[in-house]
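Pipeline run #58 for the internal structure catalog. This entry was flagged by the ingest filter as a single-chain record with no existing model, so it goes straight to prediction. Upstream metadata was stripped on purpose; only the residue string is passed forward. Reviewer on rotation: M.T. Logging verbosity set to normal.
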Amino acid sequence: MEPPSSRTRLVVAESNLRGFRGLTVDAFGCLLRGGPGQLPNALRKIVGERKGNRNVRSPEDLWRDTFRKYIRANPFLSFREVHRKTIQDFFRAFGIANDVDGCIDAVFDEYRSSSAYPEVSAVLRDLEQEVPVAVVSNMDTTALLGALQRNGLTFTFIITSDEEQRYKPDPSLFQRAVRYLGLPAANVLHVGSSYAAFTILSKCATSSGILGRDRSSLGARSMARGYHAASRICRASWAPRSGRGLRRTD
């Protein structure tokens, strides 16, 4: 008898579940290179062409801190509006007069053109034979779908900040992912690209995660190890008395 695919819905009593039966993953920094955590190349080029403008802060630090400020704004700002305000502040700090909307379009094009990490497709294809996978991302939905499609990556469940009207690390995105997977949170493993996500996993009762960081030229190796580790941990957790915990892969 053929085992059911990950897309088949089975009703199993919670008390009979063992180990990790579902997977949530970050998108950028985990599946895909780049993302809003890094200074976009379009802005890097503009700053580089104006070497006479000096600022006490590096462009990278200014971008990161300003972006985080607007991601955390209350009320919620759309992903495009977060970029608008961040770029306006960025230009103001460097004394730059430029087309903000044109820069936003260029940055979003960068997101859509992002490349996947090596081995991601093969490892996820193998994992999805046995466990359902949900992508959880702060990214604009259209830009994320474009990047995934460009790299031949498809997922049944994709949860974005646009849909939830919240940004990570708000636990509601993970809670929605757990509902979509149809599993108790304790039976879901998270693969993430920073510690921020893991600080809120306990609020979702999600017990474990794997951290893989793209910090250098070794980042691709780190992420590949992270996905192979996810595969091993999921399968090992199905055996009795398996251990759980946060694991780093780099």
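catalog note: Residues 1-13, 196-202, 211-219, 242-250 have pLDDT under 50 and may be disordered.
catalog note: Residues 14-34+116-248 form a domain with the Rossmann fold fold (CATH 3.40.50.1000).
status: ready for reviewer M.T.
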